Amino acid sequence: MAAPLLIPAARLRPPLLDYAPAGLPAFDSLAGGLPRGAITEIFGPPGSGRTSFLWTALATAAARQEVCALVDATDAFDPDSAAQAGLPLHRLLWIRCGGDAERALKAADRIVNDGGFGLIVLDLADLPLRVLRRIPLVCWFRLRRAVEGTPTILLVATPQPVTGTCASLVVEMQGAQALWSGPPNARLLRGGVFQLRPRKPVHQQTASFSARAQWAR
Amino acid sequence: MFACLHVPGLPSFRQSVLLDCAAAFSPVIEQTAPDAVTLALDGCTRLFGSLERAARRMAEHAASLGLEARVAVAANPDTALLAARGYPGTLVIPQGREAEFLAPLPVEVLQPPAEIAFKLALWGVRTLGELAALPEKGLAERLGEEGVRLHKLARGTFWRSLTPATLPERLEESIELEHPVALLEPLLFLVAQLIQRICERLKARALAAIELALELELEDGGKHERRHRLPVPMLSARSFLKLLQLDLEAHPPQAPVCRIRLCAEPAASRSVQHGLFVPRQPEAEKLELTLARLSALVGEGRVGAPEPLDTHRPDAFRLKRFTVEEAPGPATTRGEPVMLALRRFRPPRPARVEERGGRPHVVMAQGVHGRVVEVAGPWRISGDWWSPQAYCREEFDVALAGGGLYRIYRDCLSGGWYVAGSYD
């Protein structure tokens, strides 16, 4: 007969999470911000505003004097547009993984375990879904365990939800519309309006935010 | 009082180690001989309790640096040197009994000039006691000024001041291998010993290392040099070993190694006072190791802080070394509006574009295809026309019927179309 397993009483109730603002007032009022010591998953199709969300969250964390890291699975980070979003690039550790999901997960695991980062973004948004589906759930459990009890926010961007039960907050993004101006022969992209809805914990309400193109003043 | 540390047969490349060993005990040290260092012990009894204990500590410290040192303490520097040459282990000669302790030692400890040594041998003078017993006036007549000096030395009455030595700026340790090493693990085992010694020496000087340089002499006569500049002064043997291990794994030598030389550039130790209300940051020492591990994982030049280049060329940036700011300013609140982000496709995806009226109508590329429902552009950019890296392109922002906003461009030099990235 197996020995009885002793569980600390503190484990029986979910830990109270500390939330930090993401820098999007609509999102912060709806979801309370980004939970520290937990995984937050942002998912949505291309053009749904995931990246604008990430850059804003990174810029907000950097403004709080936190050190940020971006694990970029597909080398999609554009320093110009991130700098335009107010992100101080010298406070960002950019890890280019060259399209390798395994490397990206290992890199994320390494920096989560080494600690000291305020916000870690794991950008898997451009990876094919079949690759993401092959990531074993134990990887996400491992990351959740590593980030638990630390002040670090682990933000994961994906095209579809893949973290299972490991994420404390799952947000679905949708592109509502692109904003154009000018006559038909001289159009100008001025930005986009994006919608987001927390899927875990489930919210019936949606929030929307608009992102402005850097040349639209 | 003076102490002399003497290491018989000390190789020349380890002289600086002996100096460092002495410098850990006194600020006034003298390189008396290639294999001996003398130091002033003024005030040391307050630190160590007694001269015997100080001598023992010196011997222990020398042993920790890999030196089998003889230590002798005496009232004058030269008596200490002669005693260190003549007696093994540690010895303290009480003041006033110098001649008594020196008497049984052979004349060779004086290292006299060959001519005088020959004359002393002819006279049958074999010990310092026998030399000290000779009349000074007679010695002066037969051996001259040098004879008088040797006589005073033999009696332990030769007084002089120390000539202070300057410590070498770079710390260096090396090992000559009897058999070439071709495997990484045994090589690292040896490198670990050198690192340990360097760290002991740095610790003795209350310094840390800002740069490590590893030089490997190879069996084929070549040299393999690796230099590692640290972001902050560090003093952690474990971190140094891991950094060198990761570096050697990424850049292995091309032949078995015959000799290992490790140099460290010292710098003042770092002292940081963290603020109570400043967010936690990665420790600089740990971060350096993390960055090295990440580089080993994803490849060199793929980890760092992005820095845009001073050019109009699209997607021009470089990755600079990532460091944590030591003195961050107060936290600020962000007031900027949300900006539309661009996701780059690296490299840009080649596309087939159907044009209508000189503007894209249908775009087909890997993962991007559809009819264009909105288009803005062209925005023409060009530059570097004077160099082989010239660029000229017409950029368009397009919205496709299936959804998605993309930046596409036509390369005016090749005529091809590409998808640069997507707005997300």
Q: Could you characterize the architecture of this molecule?
A:
The complex is a heterodimer of chains A (217) and B (424). Helices cover 28% and strands 30% of the residues of chain A. Chain A has seven helices and ten strands. In chain A, strands 5-4-6-7-3-8-9-10 form an eight-stranded mixed sheet, with helices on both faces. A two-stranded antiparallel sheet of chain A has the order 1-2. Chain A is globular, with a radius of gyration of 18 Å. Chain A starts with 8 loop residues before the first helix and ends in a 5-residue tail after the last strand. The mean pLDDT of chain A is 89. With 424 residues, chain B is α+β, with helices and mostly antiparallel strands. Chain B has a six-stranded antiparallel β-barrel with strand order 12-13-14-15-16-17. In chain B, strand 15 and strand 16 (405-411) form a beta hairpin. The radius of gyration of chain B is 35 Å and the shape is elongated. Classes of the chains: A alpha/beta (217), B alpha+beta (424). The interface between A and B is large, with 72 and 59 residues. Strand 5 of chain A pairs antiparallel with strand 10 (303-308) of chain B.
